[in-house]
UniProtKB/TrEMBL annotation:
The lineage of its organism: Eukaryota, Fungi, Dikarya, Ascomycota, Pezizomycotina. GO terms for cellular component: membrane. Its main location: membrane. It comes from Melanomma pulvis-pyrius CBS 109.77. This is Uncharacterized protein. The chain crosses the membrane at residues 31-52, 64-83, 89-110. Keywords: Membrane, Transmembrane, Transmembrane helix.
Length: 113
């Protein structure tokens, strides 16, 4: 199927008008895919993993207190490392990008008629 170039912008605008939530989802996922730090820094800091260590009274410190021992290379240590820009940053970025791809695919499939 050939689409005339002159009509392309109208088709895109029409799709955006008909699917505003899907459009927002795809835009946000595109930002996360291209700059995963946009999501990882926000999520990690919300959980209490900061660049200077765990924030007092946060979910991060509650988890550390609950488990009592945080092994090197474990989930909590990797999340803290990601927040501090260490070895966990690549893991967190990859997870955010994978989540964005899956989320866009699910959003696309769910919105199909």
């Amino acid at each position: 199927m050939s689409i005339p170039y002159a009509e392309l912008s109208w088709l895109i605008k029409g799709w955006i008008t008909e699917h505003p939530y899907q459009t927002a989802l795809h835009v946000v996922n595109g930002v996360v895919l291209l700059t995963p730090a946009a999501a990882t820094i926000l999520i990690l800091s919300t959980l209490g993993f900061t660049s200077v260590g765990p924030a007092a009274g946060s979910t991060a410190t509650a988890a550390m207190s609950y488990f009592g021992f945080v092994p090197a290379g474990g989930v909590i240590a990797t999340l803290q490392s990601a927040a501090m820009g260490g070895y966990g940053a690549g893991v967190a970025a990859g997870a955010a990008q994978a989540g964005a791809v899956v989320s866009s695919a699910v959003g696309y499939l769910w919105g199909r008629k």
